[in-house]
Amino acid sequence: MTAQLINGKEISQQRLAKVAQAVEKRAADGLHTPCLAVILVGNDPASAVYVRNKKLACEKSGIKSLSYELPASTSQEELLGLVVELNENSKVDGILVQLPLPPHIDSQAILEHILPHKDVDGFHPYNVGRLAVKMPLMRPCTPKGVMTLLEAYGVDPKGKKAVIVGASNIVGRPQALELLLARATVTVCHSATQNLSEEVGAADILVVGVGIPNFVKGEWIKPGAVVIDVGINRLENGSLCGDVEFDAAKERAAMITPVPGGVGPMTIATLLENTLHAAELHD
Ligand code: NAP
Fold first, then answer.
1. Does residue 186 share a domain with residue 148?
2. Residue 83 is part of which domain span?
3. Residues flagged as binding site for NADP(+)
4. 77 and 179 belong to one structural domain
5. What confidence score (pLDDT) does residue 202 get?
6. Whole-model pTM over 0.90
7. For the chain, which ranges sit under pLDDT 50?
8. Is residue 11 part of a domain?
9. 136 alpha carbon, distance to own chain's centre
10. What region holds the Tetrahydrofolate dehydrogenase/cyclohydrolase NAD(P)-binding domain (predicted)?
């Protein structure tokens, strides 16, 4: 069996087109143009690429973007000052602080200063808590993007066994909450998990976000599983690969996301959906 490819690029373009339509309709109705403020601190090349792609997607969908590119030497107080200023700016709907931040900055403290209704990344504990109690407001972009992909391909998690490998605040943990909300039976694996291959082998839906190239072996995967690879790893030859051994996994899975072109574009599309949602909350 060769798995069906889950085309995140195509689904993300459809979602961005819907955002663009909604932005146009807002203008026709005399409502303000949604505005996203993007803060980049330092010169991490991967972060610079992510920020550029986010700004390009804003342009394509008619969302205004404001860019703040700060030197790596920026202090915690300076960055907090900018966040507070953007919180108070009524023209700004969403605030995104690109992670990772330089090591001298306490990322969590910065994220907790973003007003929850402008927290378009969905990382504020208030938004994580709302997701946990089944009352989501701003949903973390990558896990929500994964749910959009599953829905687009007719995969209903209800009653399925979902296994997540990775338990970070931005991928694994909120993914577990999203899948629980969708009525899956959820297992979350991390670096202390025993018998990982057995856990993975039980998954009807497998989501992997670990950050280690080809970490999940194709032979671990249950035949017919849906495999979502969140990992983005740059190899020495410059190419990108995921956390799942793609060539072997596609021979066992029913559906699988490629890297690139799977989850990555969905994260950006969801960010813009969240920015539109933030603008609606401000109306
Ligand atoms: P992270 O913060 O480093 O978290 C990695 C997680 O993997 C942790 O929970 C860790 O467990 C777990 N882990 C590490 N080694 C393991 C092992 N041997 N067995 C089982 N679990 C293990 O990474 P992240 O920020 O979540 O990112 C993960 C990957 O997703 C990266 O490749 C990143 O580039 C990618 N990513 C992609 C997108 C996208 O839009 N597609 C968005 C975000 C991230 P512990 O909790 O025990 O430490």
1. yes
2. 31-115
3. 166-168, 232
4. no
5. 98
6. yes
7. none
8. no
9. 15
10. 140-281
